[in-house]
Amino acid sequence: MKLSLSQPLKNNTFPFTIMKTLWTDQDGTLIKEAPIGVVTQRYCFEDVNNEYLKQFYDGEISYDELMSSTVRELIKRRATRKDLTDIFRSLTPMPGLQNLLANLNGSGLAIISGGLVDISEVHGITPHFQETHGVRLLYDEQGFLKGYISFEGTKEGKYECFENVRQRKRIAYHDVVYMGDSGNDVLIAKRIVENGGTFLFVQPEEAHEHCYKRREEQHILEMEKIATATIQTLDEALLHLD
User: Fold this and answer.
1) Which domain holds residue 113?
2) In this structure, is residue 71 part of a structural domain?
3) In what order do the strands lie in the sheet with 229-231?
4) What string of pLDDT tens digits covers the 242 residues of the chain?
5) What are the beta bridge partners of residue 231?
């Protein structure tokens, strides 16, 4: 990966120190459920979407093709902004989310998600972070879904986004605290821990099981090993921001 951004000094440090910054995934980290799974259930094409997921994990389609297939099915079913917003609002925030947001005190840096970041907007999460990166839905003037703004939600895509933001913001690794829960966070987790930052593996006591977690058990075990800490409620992250 080649970046045309300002490079850090030797040993990944920068010429000044700032406060710790919080970075986070969304689905399974800030929100308990796998939102796409909930959406496809409500619009009655869960079986069709599971076939798309199988094709993705078998390497037959790309992440963008996976998202495109899902959005295409929603457009066929005349999904609206109101209906989707109601579904997003019904999703369960992770335990400790509100306490975490209330005490961030400006340290929220970025949400980096392969999912629909419209969800973070509906739950009032995005104002607590400087940047939000992920898939965004697009609607026509009548409020019907018409498309989406893509984002590469693979582990490589998320890492490239993270590194772009980190270098642009000139933030040293040791000032990074990142929360994640699944295989597409593993590359970010490795790089952060290798360079003196903090990776928090989010595993609540009663988490909803993601279909992609069942397929990426090896990555999950790997993240458990390299994590700075495993947290069950999000407000535990505040202990690592001091």
Assistant:
1) 10-33+93-136+148-240
2) no
3) 145-149, 131-139, 108-116, 21-24, 176-180, 198-202, 229-231
4) 223 233 344 444 444 445 899 999 999 999 998 888 889 888 988 888 888 888 887 888 888 888 899 999 999 999 999 999 999 999 999 999 999 999 999 999 999 999 999 999 999 999 999 999 999 999 999 999 999 999 999 899 999 999 999 999 999 999 999 999 988 899 999 999 999 999 999 987 665 454 444 455 666 788 889 999 999 999 999 999 98
5) 202
